[in-house]
Design a protein that fits this description.
heterodimer, A: mainly beta, two-stranded antiparallel ribbon, 1 helix, 7 strands, B: alpha+beta, 3 domains, two-stranded antiparallel sheet, 5 helices, 12 strands, 15% helix, 28% strand, elongated
């Protein structure tokens, strides 16, 4: 008997060459994180068959991921794949905003940090056919 | 309240209460600076609260004020009193130096990576698979540790943050091809209180018995699986 698919999730990694910024002062109480179990979806029947996705953090970027990201770029947030996307450069941007412990009720605009995460690709120009015009491809 | 139609500055006057004035002049029995039993020193004149009021004045009145002038409202002559009704005023004084500062510390939020761009046309070996973003609080220019950060958005399309992680599936694994996803770790408490991590993951589908599943994963990746060993013991028990 097959059961629902499980995920094996790897832990959070740290970027190569990451150096934490030295902190010189403290705001608020620092609390230890809760001990969370990566896999909490455990089945009861030990003889049942388990199908699981063995997720692992990639050590190196690979072509399959690149193609998956390109497809994701050309997919709307609602999950609709854009057919014949226009433009030679396509991109998808996630804008992040953050703030710490507010010292007052109203947070001023300049008291919000922000940064963006952008994925983009430019369609490559295929050499023109002898009688045709150049075409773009992923 | 009146509207300030065209200015970038705000003028205000502060009126001390009678008690405040006593502390200001350190009247007998009302010292400005006191020391508590635990050694804490208190400045009783330190302004910690204030209120705003509307005196219901003619808001065009300030237009007639220039630095160094003051309304001539003293005296008993009628000409001095009528000056307040839009008539020519003399000897005016303007509270030009009473611009309000914020009174707050200078707060700035920033991060170690400005804007992160993954150009998929680049050589694959030059694209990162793990990105660590450190959120920083600068209080008066000093990097300051905050116990937690609020980061938005917490939803992206159909993907919703769960356990401080936003998982965006890029492709599902099949029996023949691997799946890919992007996992974004939001800041949590403790050591990861100011870190965001964006990491790319790949999965293959595997099938086994639950017993083997627990056994293999408990022995191969005990660190990643955290308290799975405890769960396994409970199940076996």
């Amino acid at each position: 008997m097959k059961i629902k698919k499980l995920n094996i999730n790897p832990s959070r990694k740290v970027d190569v060459g990451f150096n934490p910024t030295p902190i010189t002062q403290v705001l608020g109480a620092i609390t230890a994180p809760e001990d969370k179990t990566p896999i909490q979806e455990v089945v009861e029947d030990s003889n049942s068959e388990v199908e699981y996705n063995d997720w692992q953090v990639l050590d190196q970027f690979e072509e399959g991921l690149r193609q998956a990201l390109i497809k994701w770029i050309d997919t709307t947030k609602e999950g609709v794949v854009v057919k014949n996307p226009e433009g030679s450069t396509r991109k998808k941007v996630i804008n992040f905003y953050f703030y710490g412990i507010p010292s007052h009720d109203l947070i001023n605009r300049n008291e919000i940090g922000d940064f963006s995460l952008t994925f983009k690709y430019t369609k490559k120009v295929i050499s023109p056919q002898s009688s045709g015009t150049p075409t773009l491809t992923r | 309240m009146g509207a300030i139609s065209a200015t970038t500055q705000v003028q205000a006057q502060a009126y001390l209460t009678e008690l405040g004035r006593k502390y200001l002049f350190q009247e007998n029995g009302h010292p400005r600076f006191v020391e508590l039993e635990d050694g804490t020193k208190i400045d009783r004149l330190k302004v910690e609260r204030f209120s705003l009021g509307d005196p219901d004045v003619n808001y065009r009145f300030a237009n007639q004020l220039e630095s160094g002038d003051m309304p001539d409202l003293s005296g008993e002559n009628e000409s001095t009193i009528t000056g307040t009704k839009g008539r020519a005023l003399t000897s005016l004084i303007s509270p030009a130096d009473a611009f309000l500062g914020t009174g707050d510390d200078e707060l700035e939020y920033t991060q170690t990576e400005d804007n992160i761009v993954l150009d998929l046309n680049k050589d694959l070996s030059k694209l990162p698979t793990v990105i660590t973003q450190e959120l920083l609080t600068l209080l008066n220019g000093e990097s300051t540790l905050e116990s937690n950060y609020n980061v938005f958005p917490k939803i992206f399309g159909k993907n919703e943050i769960k356990d401080e992680q936003l998982v965006i599936n890029l492709s599902e694994p099949t029996a023949t091809t691997p799946g890919y996803r992007m996992r974004i770790f939001y800041p949590t408490l403790g050591e990861e209180n100011n870190k965001m991590t964006i990491q790319f993951e790949r999965a293959n589908i595997a099938t086994t018995s639950k017993k083997e599943f627990l056994k293999v994963n408990a022995t191969v990746k005990p660190i990643d699986l955290g308290s799975l060993l405890t769960n396994l013991e409970n199940l076996q028990g």
